[in-house]
């Protein structure tokens, strides 16, 4: 959870552009606006910001992975999104965060002050357009997630998730899922047992293979696409 000012971070930051090779639209925005981004590192399961905390910063994942989630009144957890290297998160329509954000694994993020971005967008069309594109992407993901939870059965949800991660991990150069099966279940609205059964069935059918605790090899993408159709 970020409670200190940029000048006194929880961990020693590296100021300036990061060297991660992921597509870096966010860095281009901050560079065009003349803003200084700061990096923070978070340990596995460490909170980056909490629900209802002021949304003073906008973040980008440099390495690792982040999950956003909400705890329901009955104690269950609903994960809203996973963010991988290059992804931007923390963009809010209001003044506070609606979800909590945590590091899935040891993670480094870059952040800039939201107010600075908003001021830059007010005078630079390119910055405003880029921020709108990122916000529209978040909206599109939320709509896709809503349809997944509302209209697909358990196997279809797992297939959809594997295809999404296959596409996104390939873009970042990552080869293994950073999240555990419980995380997957909380994202898909399924129990841990249901996720495990679905993966076991896909493995028995020769659709996926397992290599290590979290490495899932997709052997038949077309079968997954048929399930996800």
Automatic annotation (TrEMBL):
<dbReference type="InterPro" id="IPR012318">
    <property type="entry name" value="HTH_CRP"/>
</dbReference>
<dbReference type="Pfam" id="PF00027">
    <property type="entry name" value="cNMP_binding"/>
</dbReference>
<dbReference type="GO" id="GO:0003677">
    <property type="term" value="F:DNA binding"/>
</dbReference>
<dbReference type="InterPro" id="IPR014710">
    <property type="entry name" value="RmlC-like_jellyroll"/>
</dbReference>
<feature type="compositionally biased region" description="Polar residues">
    <location>
        <begin position="1"/>
        <end position="11"/>
    </location>
</feature>
<dbReference type="InterPro" id="IPR018490">
    <property type="entry name" value="cNMP-bd_dom_sf"/>
</dbReference>
<keyword id="KW-0804">Transcription</keyword>
<dbReference type="InterPro" id="IPR050397">
    <property type="entry name" value="Env_Response_Regulators"/>
</dbReference>
<keyword id="KW-0805">Transcription regulation</keyword>
<dbReference type="GO" id="GO:0003700">
    <property type="term" value="F:DNA-binding transcription factor activity"/>
</dbReference>
<keyword id="KW-0238">DNA-binding</keyword>
<keyword id="KW-0535">Nitrogen fixation</keyword>
<dbReference type="Pfam" id="PF13545">
    <property type="entry name" value="HTH_Crp_2"/>
</dbReference>
<dbReference type="GO" id="GO:0005829">
    <property type="term" value="C:cytosol"/>
</dbReference>
<dbReference type="InterPro" id="IPR036390">
    <property type="entry name" value="WH_DNA-bd_sf"/>
</dbReference>
<dbReference type="InterPro" id="IPR036388">
    <property type="entry name" value="WH-like_DNA-bd_sf"/>
</dbReference>
<feature type="domain" description="HTH crp-type">
    <location>
        <begin position="152"/>
        <end position="222"/>
    </location>
</feature>
<protein>
    <submittedName>
        <fullName>Helix-turn-helix domain-containing protein</fullName>
    </submittedName>
</protein>
<dbReference type="InterPro" id="IPR000595">
    <property type="entry name" value="cNMP-bd_dom"/>
</dbReference>
<feature type="region of interest" description="Disordered">
    <location>
        <begin position="1"/>
        <end position="22"/>
    </location>
</feature>
<feature type="domain" description="Cyclic nucleotide-binding">
    <location>
        <begin position="42"/>
        <end position="90"/>
    </location>
</feature>
